[in-house]
Amino acid sequence: MRDAFHEELAHTSERLVEMTRLTGSAISRATTALLDADLALAESVIAADEQIDAIQRELDDTALDMLARQQPVATDLRIIVTGMRMSADLERMGDLARHVAKVARRRYPDSAVPPELRATVLQMGQVAERIVAKAGSVIAGNDVVAAVQLEQDDDEMDRLHREVFGALLGGSWDHGVEAAVDVTLVGRYYERFADHAVSVARRVVYLVTGEWHEAYAPEPARSATR
Amino acid sequence: MRDAFHEELAHTSERLVEMTRLTGSAISRATTALLDADLALAESVIAADEQIDAIQRELDDTALDMLARQQPVATDLRIIVTGMRMSADLERMGDLARHVAKVARRRYPDSAVPPELRATVLQMGQVAERIVAKAGSVIAGNDVVAAVQLEQDDDEMDRLHREVFGALLGGSWDHGVEAAVDVTLVGRYYERFADHAVSVARRVVYLVTGEWHEAYAPEPARSATR
User: Is the pLDDT of residue B219 over 70?
Assistant: First the structure.
């Protein structure tokens, strides 16, 4: 049987996984809202972000409470502090999904994404959904192998981000400056979303292995050319 | 006389202030590099970011060590956890200054900023420098009044950010898509820089007052229209 403290740690882990589900749903729906110019869906993503923020606040309170009452050391201490950082990453990912939804809302009834970039943005949304789902698996199972696989999704996101810049800067952009601004920002939001998912996974790896190699620095060293 | 624990807390505070100085210098030099297309200066900002990252790692180690050895509760616990969050904000501000410098490097020997936006970007750099200097004063003095004043700098940054979008979207942009992309990203970097400085200040306010009003949520509710 687990004691109350380890029950609380397990609960925190479950809530973090719940946050990955909510941010995954948010980025998925934000992508659809963006591509389909679906205002109601965009509004629902924007409104739902409060739920993610609330879980972070709850987890912060729990973490501070555990630190104060349990006086943990060594591994338990690292788990609690790392949990606080992961919830901050996930909260920020919720914000980024909301930012994508806000671009959709701003451009309604048009879509902010020109036809030749629809496939790329759709893939960015899918990669974002996949990477945060894997981050959830990593949290749930402390799965270091999945954490490494997730880095490949991040590489894929960087490739798609470069595709966006290729379309913008290839010399044949004829959608005007407003669309260029929107696409630039949206590309950045997806890239940052993936970066934070990578951070979440790397924090778990650090917890499990105790090693924080340069390759596992919180900010991915690789990134798109912009 | 202070005991060893409070010496360590004071040392952390000094190191956080040092981080504000370094990030302030970084954003100032990055702005000059951007406006003057100064490659050597851009490279120096990019290289110097490692120093900021190193201080964050050192502060994280110190914080974990204090949590494990001192088993703090109540205010001391909150100070340590808040310090970790502030150093994360400041580390990110260093990244954002580096991003600005990278735009300067990418566009060298040209400047990424068209003539009619030079004054705006110069001001964004100045506001960024000012806001992080105030964040440093807030940390050094636990000065809640300065924390409130700093919000006005953030309002000014939002106004400048809207000016950037005004120039981009006003219908008279004739600098092409590449410049539009660069200016969009640079505007976002300055805005995020200021947001993190606001977070730093709000965290101090939270520590001092114990109140975390909606108005002091980590992410500023106000923001530019994009």
Answer: no
Give the predicted TM-score (pTM) of the model.
Answer: 0.93
Q: Which two tokens stand for residue B212?
A: 């975390």
Confidence of residue A226 (pLDDT cuts 50, 70, 90): low
- Among A162-176, A210-224, B60-74, B144-158, the range scoring the smallest mean pLDDT is A210-224
Asked if A115 contacts A179 with a C-beta cutoff of 8 angstroms, the reply is no
A9-27 burial: b if 16+ Cβ within 10 Å, else e? beebbebbbbbbebbbbbb
CATH architecture of B4-216: Up-down Bundle (1.20)
Predicted confidence at residue A2, as pLDDT, reads 65
Which residue ranges make up each domain of chain A?
Answer: 4-216
C-alpha span between A81 and A183 (Å, rounded): 36
Q: Which of residues 51-80 of B touch A (CB under 8 A)?
A: 64, 67-68, 71, 73-74, 77-78
Q: Is A176 exposed, middle or buried (0-12, 13-18, 19+ CB in 10 A)?
A: middle
What confidence tier does B2 reach under pLDDT thresholds 50, 70, 90? low
Q: Which residues contact B124 (CB under 8 A, 6 or more apart)?
A: B31, B157, B160, B161, B164, B187, B190
Q: Which among B181, B195, B207 is the top mutation candidate for probing chain A, defined by the most A β-carbons within 10 Å of its own β-carbon?
A: B181
ipTM: 0.91
